Type II secretion system protein J (Geobacter metallireducens), 215 residues
Amino acid sequence: MASAAVFQRPSRRHPTVRGSSGFTLLEVLVAMLLLVIVAGALYSSYFTVLRARERADEGGEQRRELRGTLDLLRREIDGAFYRSGDRRLRFVVEDRDVFGRPASTLELVTAAPPSADERPASDLVLVKYGVKEKERQLALNREATDLFGSMKPLPYPQMESIEGFLVECYDSGKWVRSWNTELSPKLPERVRITLTVRDGEQTAAYSVQARPRVR
């Protein structure tokens, strides 16, 4: 008797589900390294933008101060007043330097600006400019007083952190760095003011010319 063949249906194997075993130490270290690199780049960009903005603000303030100072000097020199024989009326420029940087002094009598002060005052004011050095830093000081007043003027910083202040006078076809109406009883034809300031890692010179109207 022949034995009956036994057929077995092949069993279906279900895929095994792999349990999550977490991150390895190497993966954690790589992730932390990438995070540090990204954070460093973000902080570097932020501080670069911040420094650029601060430099732009400082540069804008310096340019406004520079324009105001040069405009004030031009107006005062344009309105310079001198009459021969009156020792109170004078125009004096002295050529000086501080650590090799130009540091001229300027003294003149000019027309007084309009004032709301009710105290009696003359129409003339004595103005003096000079460079003050402190810890190798230069500042341009200005003092002004009523020509016929008795109050002692107090100098105040017209512009801080300059690199040079040069006053030149033009007369008889040449520029000179000194002038004194006691020696030459007249005002110069033209006056050139040059202010040198720090511009980043370099220096920049800005000039303006004035013409005294009363000569």
Notes: The chain has a mean pLDDT of 84. Residues 63-210 form one domain. The first helix runs from residue 25 to 78. The radius of gyration is 38 Å.
